Amino acid sequence: MSVSAAATSIENPAPECKQGCAPFNHNQSNNEQAGSETNVKKVTVIAGRTPNHFTDLNSAKSLVSPTRQTIEPANILDLLTKVPGVAENGQAGLFQVYSIRGLSRHRVLTYISDIPLKAERRAGVATSFVHPLLFDYAEVSRGPASTLYQSGSLGGVVKLSPAYFNHNVLSVDYQTQGNRNNQIYGTGGDDWSVAVARQFSNKSEDPVGNELNSGYEQYSGSFIKQWRMASVDYEWMLMMSEGDDIGRSSTQYPDRLVIVPNEEHLLSQFSAKGDDWRAAVYLHPNKLNTLTVRPEQRENDVTNESKDYGFHVENAWFVNKLEGLWGVDGFMRSNINAYETELSLIDNSLTSTQSLNGATERELAVFATLNSYWGDTKWQFGTRLLNNRQTNPGFAATEDDAITGFVGISTPLNPNWIFTANLGTGIRFATVSERYFVGTTGRGEVIGNPDLETERSVSMDFGVRYGDQSKQFIFNLYRQKVSDYIERIEVSPGVLTYNNLTDGLIYGAEFDADFALNDQWRLGFGGMWVKGQDDDENTLSDIPANRMQTRIQYQIDDWSIDGAVQYRFSKDKVGSGERQTPAAWVGELAFNKQLGNGLNMSLFVDNLFDEQYYSSSDDIAPLAEGRSFGVKFTKVW
Is 70 exceeded by the pLDDT of residue 17? Predict the structure, then answer.
């Protein structure tokens, strides 16, 4: 079940909702959305969702909101994993990343509005540096339609839409695990919004009582200003984040301590929107400092930083029964630096190295789509031309061109059922770090490979969906072939590098169902099955354990009970850098009560059964956190 039984109609539109359904009001709780005492006008940010004419062909698309979950998520990853096909990947903790349909790291893309999040972190981009309630919703796209996005969208794309606070909202919560507590305040008017948030946690414990290196303190905020002039809508969006002493949880702790003493992000975007066009320019300087301590041996302090900026222009056109979209993308990463100091704890000697010294990456692209109808059947195709160039002093520049495309149809089988089919290609250029970085990471020593080839993929997706006023159902089958799959390999104990495999094949299925049984009861089901292997039938890394999940909600008057249970199947076949994981039952439960005057209280339990399970099959991922009790108060006025 995608987000929640209460919101599936928003994320997975019924067939008659061809242009996509408007999201709910972000900052209201579940109960308030059902019958709010506060009448709040909805304001939508300019840049965010995929253009409406593009969205209705692909049934594998979900909108998920942090305010519509059984337990409001502690980070964006907790939100995304409610969508079938999305799973945790890599080490646990705040820097854990996600996979979509068995592809992770730099094979999935994350955007905040129109800003792509790129990083030189080898595990991929973590989205946890901003409080989840600073976002209205996440749009999760799975499947081969990558024409609108930059390289790297092999598995799928996540677009995070910043929340617009045009009223006052204050939210505070506390959990027993790690004495975790969060506070967020947002306010605004018809044309402006501002919000600030704090997140804090001490180290937590797994169900056995082992300490987890999962502490952190983060501050984040957002500012949005909108205005209209000469029939054009304008918007300036600013988001800031600073994190301190963020623990990197792994089974190597405490023999090896990895923390992030400091993480900084500044995202700024200026957007303009006319009747049939939209344009944006953006800036994203970022910095990440990682400290690895091997007691009685050495300390390695690594800093990665870059200045990212770019632009996006798109224009919709309509001629008779034809319609489409064309556009231009530009993305640049400059001053990519990675410098390391190593302090010997034996003789106090200090050495310094810099493997990335002013490296750059530039990607330019043009894209276009075309769609129309043959009777009741809608068809669409698109193409994207890309050029990518990377440099690092001391190495020859790397430049590559590519073309991607897709074709798809959607046809109604009857007034309630729709069938969809999509065929597409994808591209991923090796990252600057995969090519050039040499140094220490949380997993060990890494040596880049400048000779990596570009990954290419061919994907197929077939889906059906059903929708009426009280029921919704979506089912998808998919198959994806990835050529020159880039895999991290161990060349000697504790020393890693990257190499191209011959090919990788990933295939699987997903389903999502939601039933409004009556005015009080709502029931949801969802699940995913995925398998991946190379040409020699070895299991690919990052393939998650299969899982099934259900959620049930009961609401009457001013209170509700909400429970969810997920069954994770055991994973016996694993890839490089992974280990087998046992089956597990993971549950959560919440009681919500409206206290009047816009005040809402929630009592909840996470990891309801205190299950001993691993969130991923990464070979150094520790057990997940044990049972945690929590309370949350939200005031809207």
Answer: no
Identify the helix (H) or strand (E) that includes residue 62.
Answer: strand 61-64
In angstroms, the CA 400 to CA 388 distance is: 5
Mean pLDDT of the chain: 88
Joined together, the tokens standing for residue 556 give: 């009457």
CA angle 116–395–452, rounded 5-degree value: 60
Q: Is the pLDDT of residue 4 over 50?
A: no
Cα–Cα dist 441/461, whole Å: 36
Chain Cα centroid distance, residue 249: 20
Residue 36, Cα to own-chain centre: how many angstroms?
30
pLDDT score for 53? 41
Residue type, 375: G
pLDDT higher than 80, residue 2: no
Query: What pLDDT is attached to residue 461?
Result: 93
Of 500, 394, 402, 386, the residue nearest 451 (C-alpha)? 500
Question: Please, which pLDDT band fits residue 93 given cuts at 50, 70 and 90?
Answer: confident
Beta bridge partners of 365: 329, 386
Query: Is a pLDDT exceeding 90 seen at residue 310?
Result: yes
Q: Which helix (H) or strand (E) holds 435?
A: helix 432-436
Q: Tell me the C-alpha distance between 604 and 74, whole Å.
A: 13
Region for 531 from its dihedrals, namely left if φ exceeds 0, alpha if ψ lies in -120 to 50, beta otherwise: beta
Decide if pLDDT at 23 tops 90. no
The Cα–Cα gap between 151 and 108 comes to: 9
**In 3-state terms, what secondary structure has residue 474?**
strand
Neighbours of 153 (CB within 10 A): 31
Distance CA(632)–CA(598), nearest Å, equals 14
- Using DSSP's 3-state secondary structure scheme, residue 599 falls into strand
pLDDT tens, position by position, 342-354: 999 999 999 999 9
- 455: nearest Cα among 101, 146, 154, 99: 154
